[in-house]
Amino acid sequence: MKNINHHQIIIIGAGTAGITVAAQLLRKDKNLDIALLDPAQKHYYQPAWTLVGAGTYKYDKTERDMKDLIPKGAKWIQKAVQDIDPDNNLIKTTDGSEFGYDFLVACPGIQIDLDGIEGLRETINKNGVCSNYTDPDYTWKVLQEFKGGRALFTLAATPVKCGGAPQKIMYLADDYWQKTGVKKNTSVLYAMPGSTIFGVPDFKKTLMEVVDRKDIGLRYFHKLTKIDSENKKAYYTITKFVGEPDKLIYNDKEEFGVEEISQEEVVIPYDMMHLAPPQSAPDFIKRSKLAHQEGPQKGWIDIDKSTLLHNKYPNVFALGDAAALPTAKTGAAIRKQAPVVVENLLEVMKHQEILSRNYDGYSSCPLITGYGKMVLAEFKYGNVRDSDPLISKFVDTSKEKWSMWILKKYGLPFMYWNLMLKGKA
């Protein structure tokens, strides 16, 4: 006889992925025994935090009570996971409780690692160092109080939620400072660990036009290692093309006064900084057997990129930000991943094998380029453009469009709360 803490399906995480999967499963079969394991009292629509940081969306509109979103028929277990033992189909929570499962869907999301960069924990959300990932209201405060000087936008050298987000707020900030007269006294620099502003050529072309129009400086292969908030300096290690400035710098902003400590290390002074902080899978995932143990994907959940079934445990699926998938970590990706998990999980439950659904890596990044302007970047595995066939009939989504801005500000939030989380989209 099963103990009272055993469930047919346990879903770890009641974020976008967890609620969507639970809702879709129960729409398929209302008799399924599903438990959602998540201690959070609140649920947030995080894609709107970019708009909050630019003063065009209210933070409280991104927040809902979790109890109002749990699908009818699912049990909500308000506990935090301590450890997962997939060999014995067992989950332990921080209060000592144990839960058994027949099938597991792991979608715990991603965590902010403030200790991943020296000095970050001490200065985040104060001293002019802001992040939409941690406190978008403070970002808006910084933008309003900034009176000119060096505006540094940057991101950590880890995977982050929506890799395009660190530059969206830069374009909006530039727009805001243009309207308030601050831009004429401002120099904007974007320092990134990667090799390009965007991996898909069609969207990169448009974004580079935006960069040129706004006179923004770019620095490639710059890995942020330390923040000295007292002296307002950011330390970077050059990870590639050392000594080849033509491959590292685009539109050199000499007025920034970048200091070269050595060929491999530079210091960039700033008057305000916005950054995407280091991020990782939750600790209980990283130390579990569900995660890759070695290699570049170490710490992320080891799943087949097409079926989303775990590569070692045939009763475990994963999706969302904690999954080791070579695509962007966005809510749009989850919208395409969820039905694949649902169909394949039901196939495994009935037939012990997967017969149908495959995920092609679809993700999208609504790239805001200013107030009232947006590029809808949609792509799949291999950085191949993958625009929605219906939208593409009417709009070239690789160009800046007011209609895409309306989609971002009004259409997508409506779809999220009223369709996606109810298993209808």
What is the CATH architecture descriptor of the largest domain? 3-Layer(bba) Sandwich
| Classification by helices and strands | alpha/beta
Strand percent estimate: 25-35%
Task: Compute the number of strand runs.
Answer: 24
Number of helices: 11
* CATH domain class name of the largest domain: Alpha Beta
CA-to-CA gap between the ends? 37 Å
| Uncertain residue segments | none
**CATH topology-level name of the largest domain:** FAD/NAD(P)-binding domain
Q: Could you name the key traits of this structure?
A:
single chain, 425 residues, alpha/beta, FAD/NAD(P)-binding domain, 2 domains, seven-stranded mixed beta sheet, six-stranded mixed beta sheet, 11 helices, 27% helix, 26% strand
Can you describe what's shown?
The protein has 425 residues and is of the alpha/beta class. Helix content is 27%, strand content 26%. The protein is built from eleven helices and 24 strands. It has helices at residues 16-28, 49-53, 120-123, 136-145, 165-180, 201-214, 245-248, 283-286, 331-351, 389-394, 402-418; strands spanning 6-12, 34-37, 42-44, 63-65, 74-77, 81-85, 90-93, 98-106, 111-112, 129-130, 149-155, 186-191, 217-219, 222-228, 233-238, 249-250, 259-262, 265-269, 272-276, 279-280, 316-318, 363-370, 373-380, 384-385. The strands form six sheets. Strands 1, 2, 5, 6, 7, 8 and 21 form a seven-stranded mixed β-sheet that branches. A six-stranded mixed β-sheet has the order 10-19-11-12-13-16. The chain has a four-stranded antiparallel β-sheet with strand order 14-15-18-17, with no helix packed on it. Helix 1 crosses helix 9. 47% of the residues are buried. The model has no long low-confidence stretch (mean pLDDT 95).
